[in-house]
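Case study 2.
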Amino acid sequence: MQPVLADSVRLTDDGVLILDRRRFPFERNWVLCRTAEDVARAVEDMVTQSSGPYFAVLQAMVLKARTLEGKPFEEARAELGKTALMLENTRRTNNALRKATAIVLEHVDAARDVAHALQGAQEGDRRYRAKSRALGVHTANLLEDDDTVMTHCWADLYLTETVRAAQEQGKTLRFFCTETRPYLQGARLTAETLVEMGVDTTLITDGMGAAVLQSGEVDALVTAADRVTMDGHVVNKVGTLGLAVAAHAFGVPFHAQVQAPDHLAPTTEHVEIEYRDGAEVLQVLGRPSATPRVKGLYPAFDVTPPRFVTDVVTDRGVYRAGELHEYYEGEQR
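Prediction:
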């Protein structure tokens, strides 16, 4: 069965439909974005999360290209390039948005026709799903039948492809999911999708992670990574660092999933950590959890040093932190 969130962005004649993940699964509302600017606002406002912004940005580029058809190519290309930068800046820590705009612009430039944005978006969609499938197989190969896995936040296609690959290998997995404040992605998205796939799933609060890792019940910590630097630092949803440190302390391997280490980020100095409005931590699903007299702090991501990372799982295989350069060997960039 295809999980609901595996198809949460759709291009239509009227615009881009995005499934609102802020209230899923309690409500299943689709937000219609008629312009690329509407998509940018939806991404910034967390209407879509995890890999959702990648697919949304692909289609936003198509929306913009539609408005440019008939203009001289150089003029249209310049406007499309500005839109690409605008979309990339909606969530700057994750470099997937840069990849989405790049593949669309590559097709446009090759054809010297903005109408080819659609082919670029289709190729970007196909490529992301194929890489996620490969990554899922490599991760499943690291897990044993009856393993219990802890995950944090929402690994989206990485997670579903890992589970699918494990099931195809005849392995049964169990999961502990952290709730992932303040948006509760783990509780609403990860846990719900795992249950959809027939997986034994237990939800824990964010503060329980270290205790559960200490209990000996967990065989592996597996999370996605928004970015992995070439020197092996894992940038992911805030809270990952604490779990990785605890896993290391209690002898639990930490497998971080990313399609590719970022060759434009040699170190963490090249990664901007997004800070969101602190008011977001003062509420849960729109309801106050503290009074307005309290200040909130919300770094959306944290950085796990390579000494706490067992390995990085990519679409091309599994690498230790000191081996990430091998991902690009023989490839011209």
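The CA atoms of residues 245 and 308 lie 6 Å apart.
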